[in-house]
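lol ok so funny story. i was supposed to be doing the assay writeup but got distracted and ended up predicting the structure for this chain instead. priorities right. anyway since i did it might as well share w the group, maybe its usefull for someone
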Amino acid sequence: MASHPILRIREFRLRKSPAADGMENPPNMSHSGTKLTFWGVRGSTPTIDRNTWRYGGNTPCIELAAPNGTRIILDCGTGLRMLGNRWMQAAGEQPIEASVLVTHYHWDHIQGIPFFNPFFSPQNRFHFYSFQSKFLGRDSLRQVLEAQLASPYFPVDVSVMSATRRFHEISSGDQIDINGVRVITRWLNHPQGCLGMRLETPTGTIAYATDNEPGVPELDENLRTLAAGADVLINDAQYSPEQLASSRKGWGHSSWLEGVKIAREAGAKNLVLFHHDPDSADRTVDGFLQAARQEFPSVWAATEGMTVTLGSGKTEVNLRESRLGQRRPVNFSATVRGLTDQGGAFEERATLRDLSLNGAYISMSHRPRLQSEVRVVIETETGPNYRSVMSLRGTVVHCEPGPDKELVGVGVVFIEEADPGRPSD
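and the output, tada:
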């Protein structure tokens, strides 16, 4: 057992990732590395209940920022609204130019379009890419965009969308170059069609397979081709393996287990579980993540505000800032148990100095793994012969060098324990 340093606790406020904030690197400015920012990670329909707040309730939208400043939007779910607000705030009077890749036309991947503020400013320019739907024919994406603003579904029509828009039809097997980012497409197995995408940037490769159900050999091979050697594989993990084999078979989605299989077969370096089911509470996604990590070394669960940076031969993952209540000074004895970033178990005896009801910031000798679970057991003496114990379950959301070079600063958000007698809303 390692030595047990004193743990110094203060209010936890997770340092913002520049990409998640959207302010340090405004649109069309160059920077080092390729950054992915997850603005929407939920599938099918957005959620707002408290059981899904940690991972987020917005539907799919990912921002890719290449080293030369090229900006690409992957899908236009409800997360698109927040991205647009950040871009407008950062750009000021400067024009915004970006490319928009839409994998397919289901509601959860397009419903953010009418609420993306940059589309309503004439100085901005956007290139849209998607496939020709057999149900819509030519100019499918243009039709989809205009139909969302048609009467009686929206108060204004498409004429108020004053930004320059160019539409490009792509299909499976295409290769396009977007200002130095090579995009390769393949069909995936999803009702009414869906394009998987491989994005090759100067600092790393991303495979994006948001909606796909395994089981069709030709389409399974397409996914392996897209994911081959990728630095990051973003893969549909909406259902459990049991659901995928029974009640949700044929619905066009995948599971954490299938994602692990593809990552292994294709030699992907990191797997991101994506497109969480609206009925999957945070603790359900926690379970999927922990199960996947038993099978594959580098797995993450997509979280709103999460950033993934590719550069210098490594992949760095950061989570968003968590809003927490006021801290209170305490002097509690505590034991902290969890897993290190290398996967080994640790246990430390500690003293808590500051604490909030939502989380804590801990100085400790071990570096726990991001998105891993920890148990914080707090002991207090309320009398000469009485000791009170409080056990808190938490998830690690941040690690950084501590004030003492031998210690690590660890941000923990406490997780509500299951209570079958309590209503979910």
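The mean pLDDT is 88. The CA atoms of residues 148 and 154 lie 7 Å apart.
back to the writeup now i swear
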